[in-house]
Amino acid sequence: MIPTKRSGSLIHRLSGHFCRFVLSALGVHQADWLPAWLQNAGQCSHVNLPMAEGKLVCPDCGVGFLAQWVRLRCVQCNRIVPSQYAFGKALRQVKALHPCCKHCGEVATLQETLDNPDVFQMQDALLVLVPLARPRG
């Protein structure tokens, strides 16, 4: 059998379940001393999610997302703050490029959602993913 992307993600999920089983058998549930890749084993990181606008579904785990255009504004002077993606525990979050506003020195920012960004707004906008609520059933 030729290994495919699907079989690789299945092996990744099974190894994650095995790691959790072994850790729970040892009495360890969430330890700070474990590496991050071992703590998140078996959880999908949504790296195969396409960068497109609108509703998206992760091809690996089937979780739905809504991709929205956002940009950051200063709370005090309401100017647009340059921003960048912050890859960490959350997927494709936005953070300010500088720690404070260059015009007034304020640290706090607002995240403004753009429905239909124009061409001149696209230079400051970033595409973020908002998880959709799963239907109850």
- Spatial separation of the terminal alpha carbons: 37 Å
Structural class: alpha+beta
Count the E strands: 7
Helix count equals: 2
Q: Mean of residue pLDDT? A: 75
Q: What do these coordinates show?
A:
The strands form two sheets. Strands 1, 2, 3, 6 and 7 form a five-stranded antiparallel β-sheet that branches. Strands 4-5 form a two-stranded antiparallel sheet. The protein has 137 residues and is α+β, with helices and mostly antiparallel strands. It is flat. The longest helix is centred in the N-terminal third of the chain and has 21 residues, at 5-25. It contains two helices and seven strands, in the order ααβββββββ. Strand 2 and strand 3 (80-81) form a beta hairpin. The model is unreliable at 1-8 (pLDDT under 50).
Short synopsis of the structure:
This protein has 137 residues and is of the alpha+beta class.
Keywords:
137 residues, alpha+beta, five-stranded antiparallel sheet, two-stranded antiparallel sheet, flat
Secondary structure: elements and pairs:
Layout (H helix, E strand, L loop, with lengths): L4 H21 L10 H4 L14 E4 L6 E11 L5 E2 L1 E4 L6 E4 L12 E6 L11 E6 L6
Antiparallel strand pairs: 1-2, 2-3, 2-6, 2-7, 4-5
